[in-house]
Amino acid sequence: MTLRKHAEFPNFYEVTHPLIQHKLSMLRDVNTVKKEFKELVLEITLLLVYEATKDLPMTTRQIQTPLEIFDAPVLAGQKQVILPILRAGIGMVDGFLAHMPSARVAHIGLYRDEETLEPQHYYFKIPPNSKDRQFYVCDPMLATGGSAIAAVNELKKAGAHKITFVCIIAAPEGVAEFSAQHPEVPIFCANLDNKLNENGYILPGLGDAGDRLFGTK
Ligand code: PRP
Ligand code: URA
Fold first, then answer.
1. Would residue 208 show up in a list of annotated catalytic residues for this protein?
2. Ligand nearest 167 Cα, by number?
3. CATH says 3-61+72-214 is which class?
4. Tens digits of residue pLDDT in 90-127
5. Ligand 2 test: best mutation among 206, 213, 216, 217, most atoms within 8 Å of CB?
6. In the predicted model, is pLDDT for residue 217 greater than 90?
7. Is 211 a catalytic residue?
């Protein structure tokens, strides 16, 4: 089992697999270039998704094997929805789609105001009939928690109630705030880092995830 629990955050699951830890160290390195950064985000997401989807409901479908008819286990219910928080969440989408190629992809546009650190909302598009779908909100970074909380607020307003948040690095301050607002939403994360600095950046962190993914700085 590679899931680590923290007593103070009952909804938080740290995925401590050695491959994730190794890749995360490469991701943090300031010398990792854009191409490698993008590949590492994808590879880490592939490993996180394996754990984050462990409770998906199952049913059976009758299939014919070359030898006999068999009630085969398959995923139950409507297609899942991946909801990346723009921009950096986009880097994680292919990691989900590799496992669930017919999942729907929704989008929410949020950016942090550099002064107030408050999330600014600019886009929201999800598929119809979302009430009973499983949503996976993804963003590499959970810092103050403002963006993740705002994304889940919008989903709940739209009627969704099966929601999981998947990130790569989280700050304890953000996990505490998210857990206070959305205690029933599980968070799957590669590492709980130390703290936020005075500018709201995660320490040790990896810097600005969106800028490193898209080469905008
Ligand atoms: C980053 C990151 C998260 C947010 C986390 O995005 O990708 O969305 O900050 O910070 P928070 O937990 O304090 O809200 P940013 O606002 O830089 O937008 P961008 O992805 O468009 O660059
Ligand atoms: N957003 C980022 O991209 N990095 C941080 O450390 C905090 C917020």
1. yes
2. 1
3. alpha beta
4. 999 999 999 999 999 999 999 999 899 999 999 999 99
5. 206
6. no
7. yes
Catalytic residue among 104, 112, 133, 212: 112
The alpha-carbon radius of gyration of the chain (Å, integer) is 18
Ligand 2 atom nearest 208 alpha carbon: 3
Whether the Cβ atoms of residue 189 and residue 15 lie closer than 8 Å to each other:
yes
Kindly state if the Cβ of 205 falls inside 6 Å of ligand 1: no
The closest-lying atom of ligand 2 relative to the alpha carbon of residue 212 is: 3
User: What's this model's pTM, rounded to 2 decimal places?
Assistant: 0.97
Ligand 1 neighbour 141 (Cβ under 6 A) = yes
Condensed to tens digits (0 to 9), the pLDDT of residues 187-203 reads 999 999 999 999 999 99
Q: State which ligand 2 atom lies nearest to the alpha carbon of 205.
A: 6
